[in-house]
Fold this protein.
Amino acid sequence: ARAPLRTSRLLPVRCFAFASPLPKPGSPLPSPSDPEVHRGEIRKPSVEEAKAMPRYFCEMSNHQLLILAADGTEGAVRERMVRDVMATDEIDWDEASLVVDGMAEFNKSGDLLMRLPYQVGIFTAVSTGIGSIPMVFNLELASWFNNRYVTAEIPQPEDVNTWLEVGGWTWNWMEPVLGTASFTLLAFQFSRALLVHCRIKPYNDWILSMRANRLEKKYDHYTGMLVRQFSKAQPFMGR
């Protein structure tokens, strides 16, 4: 027989109102479809409570911002920086927001050069990934590449009638290239994992720390920890 569910297990993420006390330890939990479960009334928010709900980060309390900022939410980190500027410079929210916008622009200066390795990697991965398909299975392209760089023996026409037969021929020289590239990427990935375990910063973390140090030095009259977190929360690529 199946053992009864323990009451310490989490209930499904739904709102229930129990008309009777909670079940005793060891007894099965009531089913959500049980009408006894819905006998009690569920408290729903009023219109006033709905209107009072914060819709923007600037409407949230300091406590809410601290929780969201600790979780890395970009908007909360920015709003916390705005409030630090307000408290330090004794200015209103609109003026402090302009100051933080300037901090963001300074933080992104030089990102084009820092993003270059990523962009080169993306272009190389996409181009070689797509280009390897016709290089393996297209007879005309494979013959051109063979005549220029490989000089392997050309098979008889009846042996390359289908694209799979072409792949069988080209795989003689494509396998070492693709296999070596795959093993190299695997070795790089393994070395990066070891760097992370040794608390040695990979390139991305190094760049983020460098940007944070530069921004903190520029705006050293604000709280350093908040300035650094604001810098790291800004997207390195994208907007």
About this structure: Confidence is low (pLDDT under 50) at residues 1-20. The chain is about 60% helix and 0% strand. The CA atoms of residues 76 and 206 lie 24 Å apart. The radius of gyration is 30 Å.
